[in-house]
Design a protein that fits this description.
Radius of gyration: 28 Å
Number of domains: 4
Catalytic activity: a [peptide]-C-terminal (2S)-2-hydroxyglycine = a [peptide]-C-terminal amide + glyoxylate; a [peptide]-C-terminal glycine + 2 L-ascorbate + O2 = a [peptide]-C-terminal (2S)-2-hydroxyglycine + 2 monodehydro-L-ascorbate radical + H2O
Family: In the N-terminal section; belongs to the copper type II ascorbate-dependent monooxygenase family. In the C-terminal section; belongs to the peptidyl-alpha-hydroxyglycine alpha-amidating lyase family.
Structural class: mainly beta
Protein name: Peptidylglycine monooxygenase
Number of helices: 4
CATH superfamily of the largest domain: TolB, C-terminal domain
Helix content: under 10%
CATH class of the largest domain: Mainly Beta
Mean pLDDT: 82
Pfam families: Cu2_monoox_C (PF03712), Cu2_monooxygen (PF01082), NHL (PF01436)
CATH topology of the largest domain: Neuraminidase
CATH architecture of the largest domain: 6 Propeller
Distance between the termini: 82 Å
InterPro entries: 6-blade_b-propeller_TolB-like, Cu2_ascorb_mOase-like_C, Cu2_ascorb_mOase_CS-1, Cu2_ascorb_mOase_N, Cu2_ascorb_mOase_N_sf, Cu2_monoox_C, NHL_repeat, PHM/PAL
Number of strands: 37
Amino acid sequence: MAIGLFFNYGCKNICFILTFTIFILLLIIASPLTSSSTPDDGSQPTSWVHTIQMPNVTTDKEDKYLCIDYDFSIKSKHFLTGFEAKPDNPNVHHMLLFACSGKARSSKAFECLGGCFLERIYFAWGRNAPPTNLPKGVGFKLATDGIDFLRYQVHYKTIVNTSDQSSLKLTFTTDPQPYTAAVLLMLKNFLKIPAHTKLTIGNVSCRYNLQATMYPIAFRVHAHMLGRVISAYVKKSSGWKLIGKGNPQWPQAFWPTNDKELVIENGDFIAAKCVYNSEHYDVDVNIGSTHNDEMCNFYLMYYKNSSDSGEVNFCDKDEYTDISRDVPGFALEELPPNPDLEDVGEGHKHHHHHVQSNISTEAQLNISLKPASNWPMLTNGMELGEVTGLATDRFGFMYLFHRGSTKWMSNSFDENFIYTGRDQPPIEDNTILKVNISSGEVVKMFGKNIFYMPHGIFVDHEGAIWLTDVAMHNVFKFPTTLEDNPQASPSLILGEKFIPGLDNVHFCKPTDVVVAPTGEVYVSDGYCNSRVIAFDRFGNFLKVWRVGEDENTYYLPHSISMDTQTGTIFVASRSSHSLYIYSVAGDFKKKITSDDFIPELFSVAY
């Protein structure tokens, strides 16, 4: 009405614009954080969104946790059906949403290290981790077993000097959902992890005795510094099925389950296994609630038919030890390293206040390096993805092998090491850059529409380019004409495309390759097989040997190089942070370790 009066009584157009603008601003200022759509008939909305947001916070220390409580009303009619995390600061390490019992503390931000009374984790976000989405028709019923409020927690990895407004958008509805979501927490309450012990195992096992069928959605694992891998399985009449397997040093998020057909039914056994390594700790560590203790937690997010009564939320004993002993040996194997997730995950490693034992060393390094600015010189919109390999030729040029827009994520491979993106086209970017070492000038770019997950590169004495692709499980040899003829076909392909294996004609995520002047080819077959395999110049199998001392230990040979004068092979073991030296016949010569190799040794060049 006011807008009409100003306009009708002859005020100039500027009056109308100013009045309209002020009116809109007043509407915006009056609007709460909770937004909802109101039906035309004036009835209450059945679905709405509420955003919990950090109010321009800063932090004064590293590893700080801040929380905000949301005390909802009419909870018996509420279903939580969606989440959307919006981090506002690169120092945000992870976000959690707890369902809590009791009285909410504050709608303002407060420091909080733990969760809350009778907590259940409904949502977890970690950088570089996939988003958590509930299937259509699935929601958390907030009236379940005394849930009174929600707590939003943000972990800031480092000091935040600029104000942060990270938020979590929640979608609610009063419409009955056909399926109800819940979280099962499997945890170990008592376990002693002895010092200087390579392998300690914590087992949890229960039997599912409810009639309601459980449909797994996602899983989350949690341990502290000593945790290496946590996994859970269900034993059905047909045998064992993997529920989920995670590295507790990666971001604390819910990861989607791979087997979309998996169900857990009445009578099934559920078992979780936590694996620890305390080789370099001088004191024993126990399971406990503080950052100086360890933890063994596996969270399973699932849903069931809303008409089915009852739900299971906890399994905290090893009730069936014979079942735990029968869990597949795969549970003890660590997941292949993932640089993207490990770099992010560094922030949630809880630092035990123990003295770390000295590691015997044969190498003492004193290296001071400074990065060169604007190297390589990227012009005309050129961008580098994850650079996974470097090689030089005899003319002084360097070749960079990178992944373009592709990233290695936790779900890039299934439990059988098969690449999940094999139905997609290869990387469309030029994955190989030829660079003038002195000037940094990019001389040529090539290698588009060939590779899926680049890894290792080598240029031999004839100028041929050798490359490994961990997604395709292949080793390629391209002629020197590749850089001038992008359509050139490889002159030799080792391995079978997208098919992993352990025999003499297959690889499993081969990491690197080196070629002798006499033509012999040596491949570090690292992420699954922990070996070196050799071929002649035509690709015929010659020999194979396992890297490392222990047949039952996974050493991850991540890079390989060669002294052509003495016929010596150097292998960088990423997981054991050691350098192994062999003859070309595979005879072990020496092992070199150094504190400078810790935590991981990625590459070697001679």
